[in-house]
Design goal:
The complex is a heterodimer of chains A (202) and B (331).
Chain A lengths: L1 E6 L8 H10 L9 E13 L2 E13 L8 H5 L5 E3 L5 E3 L9 H5 L6 E3 L4 E3 L5 H5 L5 H5 L5 E5 H8 L18 E4 L13 E2 L6
Parallel strand pairs in A: 1-9
Antiparallel strand pairs in A: 1-8, 2-3, 2-10, 4-5, 6-7
Chain B lengths: L5 H30 L2 H26 L20 H24 L5 H27 L11 H34 L5 H4 L6 H6 L4 H43 L2 H8 L3 H24 L7 H28 L7
Helix pairs in contact in B: 1-2, 1-4, 1-5, 1-11, 2-3, 2-5, 2-8, 3-4, 4-5, 5-8, 5-11, 8-9, 8-10, 10-11
Classes of the chains: A alpha+beta (202), B mainly alpha (331).
């Protein structure tokens, strides 16, 4: 099983990962296999006559988490959504009918519809790059070195096993192969007081 | 209104109406046979059977527009072991095929009645399977709180029962009205009774044999009354369930609150109002005038058709809101 590691403490939201992915896979406008979510919140802290802003904001770079229990694969009527032997999930173009059911199901917005082909598309963890010994495009593009990838056991041994932070969904639903190093203001899932600040970008 | 999901809105509502109509027709046949002759029942019921087929085919054809690459269409049944969408398509095409087969053997009176009955029961079961699998498509999405709810199967089966009943009620009175007009023109039952082969059109428009005419009227009164009572009760259940569902979603919180917000405003009011008017007020009125169907035939046609149209619009609006309420957890 392969997965991603993401370090929230290093990411400054530059979106180089998103652009590198889009460039590598030649995806059209609106199709972003990797997206950077900005989660913000906070309010004024009032002490006597003084009101001070107490706010937070942090980024989460999100592609497909190649889940252990991929709901996209479960619901796909055509078997086009396929799990490779290494655990990664990809769309078999010869089978997809473009019904977009997987898009409804995935809580990470990983499957994305390509109107040009009429098919669903998604991150395959740069299968061709991995075959030739390279790292996925997003990982190599990050100037802050906030992304890493590899066998999930190795990632968990190296970075821990945390991944339940807002605005991500409860990991028990699909069991994502994802490790996150939380930002100091990262809020545990279910206890979020913020909101996604860049809804239109993701 | 959610135009992007129009194929799904029309397909789900129309397919549910077809399944409901088939079920109601089966109930009329079964309960009717306790009191009435087969001849009287067939006189009223057979033409209605013909209307279900084209409606179901239309519904399935519309659903094709939900796909964006039809060249791979046949793949949609490959994942029946896991995907409710595959199962829905299998049940949908199965219902259409069995329904077509049943309509043919029933209208041409092929085979023994018992055999036809068995085929009807099988078709009805597949129809129930279709509505159930349709609801499970949405229920199985644990990532969408508004859809992962007991309300989804309840709503789908309520639509099935309400629209199915009203469609059959409307078909019954229109058929009888057409036949009555033939009586007024002096056409008699002789052609159909002389043993000669007659076209289906002739058979459906030929008035009832005077001997069974009173029986047909009594059957019409009983079945139309039963039908509007059914539609009334099912709508009342739906109208009680909606606030319960919405308060449940409010309790969940999070994205479910965004779904609750969809159920407000003019479209939601229109959806509730049209349902209450069509399956409530007009149903009560129909119940009273159905006591004397021959006398009130013209009025019955107008009232039942209006009620069917109003409730159909109400259900389409309700389904549009249902798709609109799709808010998923996560990013």
């Amino acid at each position: 099983m392969y997965g991603f590691y993401f370090d929230q403490t290093l990411c400054n939201g530059c979106k180089a990962c998103q652009i590198a992915c889009k460039d590598k896979h030649n995806n059209p406008l609106g199709v972003n296999w990797r997206r950077v979510v900005e989660y913000s919140g906070g309010s004024w802290q009032v002490e006597g006559d003084t009101a001070r802003p107490s706010v937070f904001s942090y980024y989460t770079s999100m592609a497909c988490n190649h889940c252990e229990n991929p709901i996209c694969v479960t619901v796909c009527p055509t078997t086009a959504m396929t799990q490779r032997a290494d655990g990664t999930v990809y769309v078999d173009d010869s089978k997809c009918v473009g019904c977009r059911y997987c898009e409804w199901a995935c809580p990470y917005s990983a499957p994305q519809f390509n109107a040009e082909t009429g098919h669903m598309t998604k991150c395959d963890l740069c299968f061709d790059y991995r075959e030739s010994g390279q790292a996925p495009a997003c990982v190599d593009a990050c100037p802050a070195r906030a992304l890493d990838w590899g066998p999930i056991d190795e990632l968990r041994a190296k970075y821990g096993d945390q991944n339940a932070f807002e605005p991500l969904p409860d990991p028990s639903t699909t069991r994502p192969n994802l490790v996150i190093k939380p930002h100091r203001d990262a809020q545990p899932i279910g206890h979020g007081s913020g909101f996604i600040a860049n809804r239109q970008e993701i | 209104m959610n135009v992007a999901e129009l194929p799904m809105i029309l397909f789900t509502v129309i397919a549910q109406m077809c399944v409901g109509a088939f079920l109601v027709l089966g109930v009329v046949q079964t309960l009717g046979s306790l009191r009435f002759s087969a001849k009287a029942i067939d006189q009223v019921a057979d033409p209605a059977l013909l209307a279900i087929g084209p409606a179901m085919v239309f519904g399935l054809a519309v659903s094709m527009f939900h796909m964006h690459d039809v060249t791979n269409t046949f793949n949609v049944i490959r994942h029946a072991g896991s995907s409710w969408l595959s199962r829905e398509i299998l049940f949908g095409t199965g219902f259409a095929a069995l329904g077509f087969l049943f309509a043919v053997v029933q209208l041409l009176k092929w085979g023994r009645p018992r055999l036809r009955q068995a085929l009807a029961v099988l078709t009805a079961l597949v129809g129930v399977g279709l509505v159930y699998s349709m609801s499970m498509i949405y229920y199985s999405l644990v990532t969408v709180p508004a859809w992962h709810s007991w309300f989804v199967p309840l709503q789908f089966f309520a639509t099935t029962v309400i629209l199915g009943s009203l469609a059959i009620g409307t078909a019954f009175v229109i058929t009888t009205s057409v036949q009555a007009r033939q009586v007024a023109r002096g056409v008699t039952a002789s052609a159909a009774d002389s043993g000669r082969r007659v076209s289906l059109r002739q058979r459906f428009t030929t008035p009832a044999d005077p001997a069974v005419r009173d029986e047909v009227e009594a059957l019409l009164a009983v079945s139309v009354r039963g039908i509007v009572v059914t539609a009334f009760v099912a709508s009342a259940a739906l109208l009680v369930a909606i606030p319960l569902y919405l308060s449940g979603l409010t309790a969940i919180g999070g994205v479910a609150l965004q779904s609750v917000e969809v159920y407000s405003g003019a479209l939601f009011v229109a959806r509730l109002g049209l349902l209450a008017l069509g399956a409530g007020l007009l149903a009560v009125f129909t119940y009273f005038i159905a006591a004397k169907p021959r006398e009130n035939l013209g009025r019955l046609v107008v009232v039942l058709t209006t009620s069917l149209v109003l409730v159909f619009i109400a259900e389409v609006l309700g389904r549009a809101l249902f798709y609109e309420s799709m808010f998923r957890v996560g990013v």
